[in-house]
Structures are given as structure tokens and as C-alpha cells.
Amino acid sequence: MTAQIFSRLLSVAAATGLVAAPIVGQAQDTIAQGDLLGLPSDLSMLQDTDPNKRVATAVVNGFVITQTDIDQRVALLLAANQRPVSDQEMIRVRMQVLRNLIDETLQIQAALAQEIDVAQAEVDQTYARVAAQNFGQEPEKMDEHLRSIGSSPAALKRQITGEIAWNNLLRRNVAPFVNVSSEEVNEMIARMEASRGTEEYRLGEIFLSATPETSAAVESNANKIVEQLRQGGSFVAYARQFSEASTAAVGGDLGWIQLPQLKNDQLETVAGEMSPGQLVGPIAIPGGYSILYLIDKRQVLMADPRDAVLSLKQIQIAFDPGTSQEAAQQRVASFTEGVKNIRGCGDAENAAAQLGANVVTNDQIRVRALPEQLQSIILDLQVGQSTPPFGSFEEGVRVLMLCGRDDPQVAAGPDFNQIMGQLEEDRIEKRAQRYLRDLRNDAFIEYN
């Protein structure tokens, strides 16, 4: 429950946890950047100091980010993370939380400067919706929970305020000035029609902006995120917390795209070689680094067999506690042989009763809803045939019998409005990145 509430805060650990090994070539890139700045290759520091330990709070254009602000955001993270954090990790956690609070403050200040105020009622409504999803329509229970972990309702509402303010600012000051012509959309549709039958990709992306001066630090940060993701972190949560792309709000999901829509040769090459479920990155691109996750892929403008709707019978046997390994194996062998002799779905119930098995019927299962290991097996079955047995002695052994299959219709052609919306989002994203970068450059920030 806690992880659901604070999934966006959970990913802060990516920038604070285990440090990945440096990427080959990073040292050479750093030297090249040093040459551009005119820095000597051998530096002698005049003071031995660790800025991570020295910097605790900040004043952003006169607004004070207090120790309490940081403590309460860190508490949200630790509650969501649900694992011990070392002293060294805690330093990095606090620094990342401070950076997030600085950006959030700049976004709220920019909105207020444009007389874009966030109504408290809107914040409360969003807060109540989160409470309803996790505490059954009782915001008071979430209030109590936040206080019990060392945070507060105000801390979560402040983050909600920042998100709403920034989205409203982009909606008023950026989106109206982004234009996509009908000719551009029609050109994209023509390219899609020309590539009918080729691969289409659903990608997730985490984009971290970087300048030549910050490239090494951003790359290191990206490596930490990748390592945490490989250890089982949620890509959606990490994208929401760290990605500087506009798709952060939807967990980095780019939707279904063709590779040319990435508008980057390197990203196209990398994505084209990925398999569903694969994570790749960080990838150096103009303006920063990208981390890609291939959610799924399909053929352009063609029906996907995995969208077929199946009618299945699940035939399952269970094992009594204390059943020996040998006895269980014998029963599985008998069950496997008995399933082979079932004469189609009409005979399933009678045959299952003789085998001491249970039957569960479901007539509305999409292929893609099944575990990936079963999808290709099911697609190769004819009506009345069954999968090989699968499962365990603890959870039961079962087979799936195919009793019907409604194949999907041929996919519709490209949607004009959908493609226009995607092109507009891409341009809004790029302008939003520049906007926040300018806010950082112009900010007066004092660290304590």
C-alpha cells in the first residue's frame, strides 16, 4: 500500500543507491570537456571538502527549503523503499531530494510569476483521490499514516502543487505556441503506410538533460538509475521521478511509435535491436542521456495475434500436505497422460473428474494477458488441444485447454489526430526542458 502511494518517491534511491561501474570512454569524454573549459589535467584542491555533507538546505529566489521539508520528503522515500539505507546512501538520498525540491520550487515560482495560481481545492481533490485509491475514501487515514512515518500531508500536497503548477504553466505558455501542420501529419501517415507490416515499438524513456559541463555527473546518475532498474525497480516510478521529458507524467511511456519518430539515429539503432522487456542505457544523445525500456512491439498497421480473445478451460490438480515427492511425481505423470486422452472441451469436465482435477472456464482472455512463456504455446494450439503441464507441487499443476479463439480484425489505418497529438507532445517536451533549464540558470540559490 505504501509503495502504491509513494511510487514516485521510491525512485529517488536510483540516484543514491549502489554505484555502477564507470562507462568505458567516460574518462576520455571528461578530458575533452576539460579542454573546452581550459582546465589543467592535474588539479590541486585548495580545500578538502565534501559538498554533499556541507549542503543541507537551500534558499531559492528567497524561498527557504527547510530541513523539515527535506526530512519529510526523505521519510516518504524511506517508507516506500522499505529497506535499510546506509549512512552513505542517506547522504545521496538527501541531496537528490534537495535537487527535486529546488526544481519544484522554481516551477511553482514560475507559475506564480505568470499569475498562474493553483487552487487549494484542486490540490485537495488530487490528495483525496490518492487517499481513496489506497485508504478506501478516508483521507484522514492517509494523514495519520504520513505523520506516523515522519512525513506530513503538507509534504505530499506540496509535490502535488508543483506538478499541477508546472502542467498549467506549460499548458498556457508553451502548448498554444506549438504548431504542427497538416502536411507534417500527412507525411508521417504516408511513411507509416509505406512501412505497413514492419515493426512498431512501444517504448518507455527516461531522459536526463546534460550540458558539456554536467555530462559526467548526469551520466553517472543515469548509471545508478539503470542499476536500480536492473535490480527490479519500477520503470514507471523512476521515469515519473527523474525523467525530464513531458512523458514523465505517464511513466515515460512514448506509446506506439515507429523508430523514425525518435528522430535520433542512435536511439533508432538501439531500439531496433531490443526485445520486449529489455532495458538499455544510458545512451548519449544531443542534450543529455536516454534510458530505453521496450514495453512491447508489433507490426505496423497489422493485426496482432496476441490480441486474440480466447475461451480456455483450466484443468488443475492439487496435492495434499505431506504428499511425498515420489507420489506427487507419479500423480503428475498420470495427470499428464490423462489430459492427452481428453476428447476436446466437451469431454473436459468428465475427464477431469476421473483424474481428480478441477476445471475453471474463462471465455474472455486475451493472449497478451497470459504469461509470456504461455503466449507462443497457446497461439500454436488448435481447438481442443492443451498446453504442457505447468506449475508446482505447492501451488498445483495445471494445463490450459483451448476451446475457442476469436482472432483480431485487421488493424485500422493511422489516426490523424493521434499522430498530430504525439508530434505536439514531442515539441512541448523539448520546450519544457529548455524552460526549466533557463529557470535554473537564472535562479538565485543559496546553500546552507
TrEMBL record:
<dbReference type="GO" id="GO:0003755">
    <property type="term" value="F:peptidyl-prolyl cis-trans isomerase activity"/>
</dbReference>
<dbReference type="Pfam" id="PF13624">
    <property type="entry name" value="SurA_N_3"/>
</dbReference>
<dbReference type="InterPro" id="IPR046357">
    <property type="entry name" value="PPIase_dom_sf"/>
</dbReference>
<keyword id="KW-0732">Signal</keyword>
<keyword id="KW-0697">Rotamase</keyword>
<dbReference type="Pfam" id="PF00639">
    <property type="entry name" value="Rotamase"/>
</dbReference>
<keyword id="KW-0413">Isomerase</keyword>
<feature type="domain" description="PpiC">
    <location>
        <begin position="198"/>
        <end position="296"/>
    </location>
</feature>
<feature type="signal peptide">
    <location>
        <begin position="1"/>
        <end position="27"/>
    </location>
</feature>
<dbReference type="InterPro" id="IPR050280">
    <property type="entry name" value="OMP_Chaperone_SurA"/>
</dbReference>
<protein>
    <recommendedName>
        <fullName>Parvulin-like PPIase</fullName>
    </recommendedName>
</protein>
<dbReference type="InterPro" id="IPR027304">
    <property type="entry name" value="Trigger_fact/SurA_dom_sf"/>
</dbReference>
<dbReference type="InterPro" id="IPR000297">
    <property type="entry name" value="PPIase_PpiC"/>
</dbReference>
